[in-house]
Amino acid sequence: MFSRRLLLASLTASAMAVSMVAPAHAADKVIKVGTLKLIHGITPYFYDKFTPSGYKIEVVTFETPTDGKNAVVTKSVDFGTYGLAAATLGAAAGEPVVIIAPQCNGGIAIVVRKDGGVANFKALKDKRVGILPGSTQEAVFLDRLKAEGMTIKDVKSVRVSFSEMAGALERGDIDAYVGAEPGPSISVIKGVGKVLEYPYSTPTGAVNMVMTTHADTVKDQAELAKLFLEIHRKASEYAMANRPALIEMAGAKLGLPADVANLAADNVKLTWKIDDDWIQRSKYYGSLMLERKQIRKLPDYSRFIVTGLNPQS
Question: Cα–Cα distances in Å, from 168 out to 35, 133, 172, 225?
Answer without folding.
Answer: 23, 16, 6, 39
